[in-house]
Amino acid sequence: MAMDATTRTRTETDSLGSVEIPEDAYWGVHTARALENFPISMRPISVYKDLVAALAMVKQASARANREIGVLSPSKADLIDRAAQLVIDGQFHDQFVVGVVQGGAGTSTNMNANEVITNIALELAGREKGDYAYLSPIDDTNRSQSTNDVYPTAIKLGLSLDLLTLLEELDLLRGAFLAKAVEFHDVLKVGRTQLQDAVPMTLGQEFHGFATTLGEDYHRLRENAYLLYEINMGATAIGTGITTHRDYGEAVLRHLREISGLDLETATDLVESTSDTGAFMSFSSTLKRNAIKLSKICNDLRLLSSGPQAGFGEINLPARQAGSSIMPGKVNPVIPEVVNQVAFSVAGADLTVTMAVESGQLQLNAFEPIIAHSIFQSITWMRRAMRTLRVNCVDGISANRERLGAMVGASVGVVTALTPFIGYAASAALAKTALLTGRNVGDLVVEAGLMTRDAVDKQLSPARLSGLETATAAIPVMFVDETGFATVPEGRTGAQA
């Protein structure tokens, strides 16, 4: 690790030798080696603040448990406890410097946490950083622990904390779509299936559907959160609990539940829990589901706003920035586009998690760092994407009411509303005639004597067309003559709705 000649340092030693550490750094020799070995992502673990806070929670709970069972002196446990609390409160996060992608199954992350919390504690005691004879990162701060129980537990805690803020944004976005559903409740439009004209609906119903699908994802994510509540503290290296006191597992669980506020539980089989990372795969899959469904909504928003002259042009998205360096006045749907790209990334990250889960061997999965990075990045980007979609797009959407009304009036799809009264065959013939002649379907129905004008107007009202009101009657027997036009049998006058 290169340092300026004027940088003041302290010397720290491990089993590989001595390393000069910047005097003002709270990390130590193990972190320094990781900085040299893993210049991969160039993103420190501190970018995921909830992961850092979770690491400190684990160290704090362990210190309290170790004091309680008598394997750590009250004075040392108190120093570690106080130092960890400072990290939980958001201080010293810049000292968590190891890269998020690293070899060693997360050992570098655990050692970074041990060193930072120990050196904070040393300063609280009035000692110099690096005075590990007084308080040791391994013998004291890491007492009764291993990377193999600390790291997966911290990931699960951090994701659980991160999920809370994601759910807040998801619910706000759902509410924004719901507000638009209310605003557009009376705006008729033509529905579409397979990009072809279908039956009418209201724009409010369309936006209500968006809100509903996001609400479903909210509940699925909450349900999957409980997969993260099973931890393996006390497992140490491979799940056998070597180096731990028999009372440690129960004590650390109790303290960690109190500190985190989460309903955690210890796995019944610590060997299995230490090697199995299936919970991360399940959680990642649910996050991907949310991302893909949100991306589909954004596809719809881009289609509905396409144009403004040669596209659908049904809604207007807020103009956020100039859309072209060559075409004056062009405005692009940049907010839905960026959300689409976040969804693509989340889908790719889910595949990464799947491969990493599969690639674990025997008593440990060495690939938890890439699992953690993939899911933390996905959940972070999703939270930000939801917010920008809500604030910079959905809240400002407006409807092109006149265009939508004209499209409904000219649509032959409205004939579907009349099929319960005049039959499918007659409806198909009338739709064909309307397409060929450009005439209004309702007028053709009245002229054919199939329904009265009042009956047609009633069935083609916004409430009936959108399904908000339903009413059907017996379907009369219809005939189609040699011209393809429907006629009513002699003596029948058509349905009177």
TrEMBL record:
Keywords: Lyase. Pfam families: FumaraseC_C, Lyase_1. The keyword Nuclease does not apply. Residues 415-465 form the Fumarase C C-terminal domain. Residues 17-348 form the Fumarate lyase N-terminal domain. It comes from the Bacteria. Gene3D superfamilies: Fumarase/aspartase (C-terminal domain), Fumarase/aspartase (Central domain), Fumarase/aspartase (N-terminal domain). The keyword Lyase applies. This is Aspartate ammonia-lyase. It comes from Microbacterium marmarense.
